[in-house]
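Board work, copied verbatim: Iron chelate uptake ABC transporter family permease subunit
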Amino acid sequence: MPNNIRTGVEINSQPQFYNHNKIWTKPFILAIIVVIILGVISLFTGVYDIRGQADGWDMFFITRVPRTAALMLTGAAMAMAGLVMQLITQNRLVEPTTTGTIEWAGLGLLTVYLLFPAPSLVLRMTGAILFSFIGTMIFFLFLRRVKLRSSLIVPIIGLMLGAVISAVSTFLGLLFQKTQSIESWFVGSFASVQIGRYEYLWLIVIVTILIFIFANRLTLAGLGEDVATSLGVNYSRLILFATGLISFAVGIVAAVIGNLPFLGLIVPNIVSMFRGDDLRSNLPWVCVIGMGTITFCDIISRTIIMPFELPVSLILGTLGSVVFIAILLRQRKLGG
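↓ predict structure ↓
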């Protein structure tokens, strides 16, 4: 992103690099253990009596195992997307929800439904990924023409663009009577996840590997275009590559699960507060905490009004909103 995007942004929104390069530490191992415990709780949480029914263990492998695996993969994907976006924009308030990326993914899903009567999951994923990429690039290009005076302007612009795209999607859905086709996208939920309907989420592992391989270059990109270029990094190409990875992860999640707000905002900010912004050493932390956060929210969504189930996006959105406000207040306090 060019220099004018970073002009006037508060110091506290810039990446901070601490000497925390070790990954396998006692706190990290403890975090993994906590996530494993949450995963086990998720496996045995639900209305259906796994141990008391004849086909209980069949249902366990048909629904519970895929759901828990989907939670872990989705949590890692959205948290990573937020981490990369915050790094390359040098703004801690940026993530797919606050840049309009997720709304563009929804528009892509709707477009696929308009063009194909009964689209396959691959087609829906393709539409969501393509529109996520287009929307994210439009967001970046829009920022090129805006002289920022505050780090708060960036997410405000993204939220405004997202609201416009969401309005367009709603209008087209009502006009062509396709609202019911994408209704599940608006309420992100894991209730429908079962074997045969989540396997594409495993592609997120490839995204994770690629981000880890290019972590050092992405970290240099977070220092700014001039610094990255002087160190031999092709800044524009790297931004396109990072945008492609973000769009790929967000598009898959949007097609399979739906809208999951603020996860990419909560987790990277928590990690950055304690570990700075070294992408390579933070990535495992972000993945693990992302997994734990969404699994915890999903367990709450399944138990708070049993035998009914709330959409996990409702719990996640509530938690994310509180954290978002807390971060805004912290930014203001540090900036003052």
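The domain at 3-11+23-335 is CATH 1.10.3470.10 (ABC transporter involved in vitamin B12 uptake, BtuC).
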